[in-house]
Structures
1.
Amino acid sequence: MADEEARRGRRPSQASEGSTSADAPRVHYEKSWLSRKCSSHIMRDRQAQKSGQLFSGLLAMNVVFLGTALISSNIFNKQAITSWDVKIFLSILMVLSICWTLYYQLVTSRKPHAVLYKDSHAGAFWLRGSLILFGACSILLAVFKIGYEATSLDSLHPVEILFPVLEILFISSQTSLLWFFCKDCTQVQHTITRYGLTLTLATDLLLWVLVVSNDSVQREMESTSHPSENLTLSDTNSSGCGSSDLAICHSFRKGYVTLYPFYLEYCLICCSMLYIMWKNVGRRISHHGTHATPKFKLHGVIFGPMLGSCTLLIGISIFSMYQIQATTSVLTKQSFILYYSYCVTLLPVMALCSVSGTIIHSLEERELDTRKNPTRSLDVVLLLGASLGPFAISYYSIVASVATDPTGLLSSLNLSYSVIIIVEHIVQNIFVIEGLRRTPPAQCGRMAPSRPHKMNSLPTQNEEGAMAPIGQNHTESDGHKVIEAEGKTCEEKVGPYPRRASLLNSRRESLQHFRRASHVYLQNYSQLNWKRRALKEIAIFLILCNIILWIMPAFGAQPQFENGLEKAFYGRSTWFTILNFGLPLGVFYRMHSVGGLLEIYLTA
């Protein structure tokens, strides 16, 4: 009875106190009080964290809604809401964000016990590499924009120059923040950190909306749809360029219009990384059972890179031909047939690879990673959310193709392309999501410990054809070279042509290094089982395919604009609105899929 009451945390009755120790109930009572105290403290921390996330999220939501209303009002009523009003609002947001990013890097991160935990899943190497690449292109875009505004025909307004300058400062400060501190789980100044992160995230999202709906991009797309309406020397008013600096002005304008896809990707990448930092504020991570993602090495793949490279080269050739004809003359029917034929051939192969990878995932005996991981959850949400853009375009195209003339060659290719796009997105999403949920093997990307292979223990072939291990003392038969242990000292007795002898020796050493590297690579490839080899091959092939499918629409190959089928069915303004929503999401989907496939390759 006393033991049961003690286990329940209650003091025993007076009748049982004489037969048991008086200290035991007190110890159990104190433990129960301490556990209740700790649990109440943890509950208060969680409640404060939830409240901070709620109010900071509400701030970001209201800022985004206000900015979107201003941008859309500028599109519908340019007289009431001018572009200067929009840029002044965004400039204020950028100034506040710059101040907070500098404050976090110089003050918050240097406080004692500011960062006790780091999220190993956040800030993958491919994400930070893309951040640097797209950030540099975005800064170059702002420089082109300054040059265009300085050489334009209209009188300069201070906001037109101030806005791109602030963009350069904003991109620079934000890139440094995300490069060095994206893994932080901040434990101090929770409130100001959360509000600063959400304000910066809202600024990036509004800049993305501004770029998508920018009037200059719309004019560029319309001129691509009607090549006969391209700008000429007499059409200076539509471009805003003066006649004296027409060539320079058009060069600047063409430069920043070309770099818009990089700016779009940069804003969305920053939004995703800032969201992960916001989720990690105040988070305490248990390092028990965590695993670090291995570094990228081209290991265990042969056919995937070969087939993917061929697909990439063919796609670049078709894209170049398409763009040359689009910019020099009216697009012919053969150009559309060539483009659609390439995509209709490639997309089913990608779908089959994704289905094969999903089947291999089901055959693997690996557990699902059920631990809390904001990065993985965000990857899944972004993957599914970005798919909505291609889905919307494809379904509208299907309706237009079936309703007009589904028996025509171009219409049937367009219909097939739209259907295959939907199927390919669905099966690739399943493959990537299943791969992200799997726990990596115990020795992912490592050589088996039972069969170690060291570089200095591989056999090499000497001049007589005999095999001798590297690193041991040996002397060549002709006495021209004496190599001592471990290759630390080397004495050469060369003939009358020392330069020729040294050149032959360097070539021989290069050939030996190549043989060693090839031997080690093939041994590593043979050590993987067929499931891991197949997953790596599929992942690399799909990575290269998604890259070419990102390049084509991002840099102007958009047959949905030029073929005229959907535009004639829905009307120019309606179809432009649909594409203006769907195409940026489709471009982001391809880039985000590359990141997910890289994770699958590394953990396969």
2.
Amino acid sequence: MKLTAAAANYVFCLFTHYQTTKNNNILNIKMPNDQFMKDLFVNTGLFTAIRAGGSAKIKKLWLNSNFVCGNNSDAPKLLTAIRNRSGVSQLPIKLTAAIRETLLNVNHHAYSHIDMPLLTWWCYFHIGEDDNGKFLSAVILDRGKGIPQNIKDSFPLLHQSFDCECISHAMMESVTSTKELGRGKGSVDMKKPVRLNKVSTADQLFVISHKGKYSYEFIGDNDKIVVGSLNNSLKGTMIEWVLYY
């Protein structure tokens, strides 16, 4: 059994969303029976992040947790938190720009159909190690409109396309739902940490939105893109970078 970074951030998002919009005590936590999984919940800080609490709890998370959430104004604070708590003297090349662009996209596109909520994104980051070496994983999630719906609304010819095809289209250079010249560079910025990292060829960018999934790698000076469909739909969009250093 394992708990992925993406799954942990999704659980964090669900709990804090309802705790801040409905009631601090609306959800009860039933810890896993398996001791290993219990330890994961505690040692990663997930238990602290999802236990009962509202805005005061969220403010405290910014002090020492790898689980944080906020809105566009909190972008500089997020980058500082990742640098300080990851233990990496310098973030992987272009990751700072990629995160900024992602949060701008959340601010400009994810919630354009509704009033902007107090919390617009949730992030979990951590340092891990596997057969390829040490890596930094950073996951950002929003509960907005979702990439597929944005693309279908802006490009009628893609209205019947699978969600993964819409994500793939959105990740192409110069594609923008606004149709404005000079826009559509966000996907390039999101890929740059993977393209430019010379430490490893195992770096990856993952995108999940609604029932679509998309992964991007850069191997031997070539893009490797894999898309697919999920059985269940994810509200909003989740983006994860796994970068070796």
